[in-house]
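Hello K.,

You asked for the raw outputs rather than the summary table, so here they are, unedited. I folded two proteins back to back in the same session to keep the settings identical. This is the first:
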Amino acid sequence: MRTVPLSDEIAIRTVWFDDHTLFVGLSDGRTVGTPITWYPRLADATSSERQNWRLIAEGEGVHWPDVDEDLSLEGMLAGRAAPGGQK
């Protein structure tokens, strides 16, 4: 998933959405928000599909099985959109 590890102390702990933003709560207390338009599969997903997520690699990323989407914390922090996402 990545070549340079983040600090072992930083990991995704929770995920939620509003109408325009994907939020992740981190183990160090921060909240990171990215536009949902960066992730076309999530933008097109139903609320139920968005709520069906699981952490991967001990919180280094999130997987949504219903829409086959995987996002990394590293990518979110670097501001990388998924292929086809609107920047």
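The second followed immediately with the same parameters:
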Amino acid sequence: MKIVWSRQNATVRDVYETLREQRQIAYTTVMTMMKILEKKKFLKKTQKDRAYVYQPTRPRDQVLKTMVQEFVSRVFDGAAEPLLVHLVKDRHLSEEEIQQITRMIQETK
């Protein structure tokens, strides 16, 4: 998704080539993931010549919110607290970061 957002539109080959600069990945894996994202309506495709060109259907913030909600629901049975505890312990947050998170929590009350 990050690659498609940054480019505004991309083929499977575009995404694959960009990812290959960072790590080993199979073309079919990229193709499968883009099909899944299309099925979930995060991407839409149009045909140009012999390739499909994918475009994001929603803004980044909206998609991230949906993906995080799905993750929390699937992995943590819908409870965000265990996820936050894990992130705080695992990420070794600085005192300043913890204070910033505390302020954000207070603002949502």
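The radius of gyration is 18 Å.

Happy to rerun anything if the numbers look odd on your end.

Regards,
P.
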